[in-house]
Amino acid sequence: MRDITVFSGSAHPELAEEICAHLGTPLHPVQINRFANDVLEVQLQANCRERDVYLIQPLVPPVQEHLVELLLMLDAARGASAARTTVVMPHYAYARSDKKDAPRISIGARLVADLMVAAGASRVLAMTLHSPQVHGFFSVPVDHLHALRELAAHFRRYDLSNTVVVSPDLGNAKEAAHFARLLGTGVAMGAKQRFSDDRVVISSVIGDVAGKDVIILDDEIAKGSTVIELLDRLRERDVRSVRVACTHGLFSADALDRLSALPEVQEIVCTNTVPPPKPTDKLTVLSIASALAEAMRRIHYGESVSALFSTS
């Protein structure tokens, strides 16, 4: 079996360290130089020849900077004769650009997938992609994990006898239904229409939520506009309490403060797929490092990964 060699870009080194601690393998250093003309140069500072190389890099702000870092690391690993190079990408920011829903717009998810493969990616390990079709944009194998088990383990600590899981839109309904099955609760969903990056309208909530303890489940929270709009509809239905859960807690601008300030929101739960924000009294951050480490171990030894990401 080839030796495993793990590197991390500058996007989330804390998560990379935690993953390597679970694997019992060192996180090897990467030297990133910036020239006077703003061009980046990457040097992987460990032997890659005939090794099973893993590059850990979520695409988080500044996204373009971290993407170029990742592409340069891939090129460096290929030039160093790595036997196989797996991109470990806990958050794929371009996954939201997955369809042509207006004239003359790019499909960034497909383009960036092609760039990674062209740069030398042999395989991709991702966590909670924005939509299922993004998986098909890659021409190399993709192992697509989710964080529902970690989230469910957290919420099982509460009394769920009067709880319903609510998806903000129909696109996330399958994940919400699976999450509800893990918790043994009912499920409901919002009827959402998006007009721009920060303007959404949820016209109604489909399902029984009146008087319920609600868990709002979404794949990511950036500006928080969808959750706030959904909360308006839930308030009209007289829900008893609200907890918010997501995999990718981006919380751009003042989104976390705005959500935390809402009196009906008792808790906001996210994972550390992206660097966590400054903590608040209502924020809980769960680690997905062990799940990613186990997936990397199974990939390395040629074992099945399906048990870790199956949604059946």
Automatic annotation (TrEMBL):
One of its GO terms (cellular component) is cytoplasm. Keywords: ATP-binding, Kinase, Magnesium, Metal-binding, Nucleotide biosynthesis, Nucleotide-binding, Transferase. The keyword Magnesium applies. Its EC number is 2.7.6.1. It is an enzyme of class 2 (transferase). InterPro entries: Pribosyltran_N, PRTase-like, PRTase_dom, Rib-P_diPkinase. GO terms for molecular function: ATP binding; kinase activity; magnesium ion binding; ribose phosphate diphosphokinase activity. Residues 5-120 form the Ribose-phosphate pyrophosphokinase N-terminal domain. It holds the Pfam family Pribosyltran_N. It comes from the Bacteria. GO terms for biological process: 5-phosphoribose 1-diphosphate biosynthetic process; purine nucleotide biosynthetic process. CDD domains: PRTases_typeI. It catalyses: D-ribose 5-phosphate + ATP = 5-phospho-alpha-D-ribose 1-diphosphate + AMP + H(+). The keyword Transferase applies. NCBIfam families: PRK01259.1, ribP_PPkin. This is ribose-phosphate diphosphokinase. It comes from [Actinomadura] parvosata subsp. kistnae.
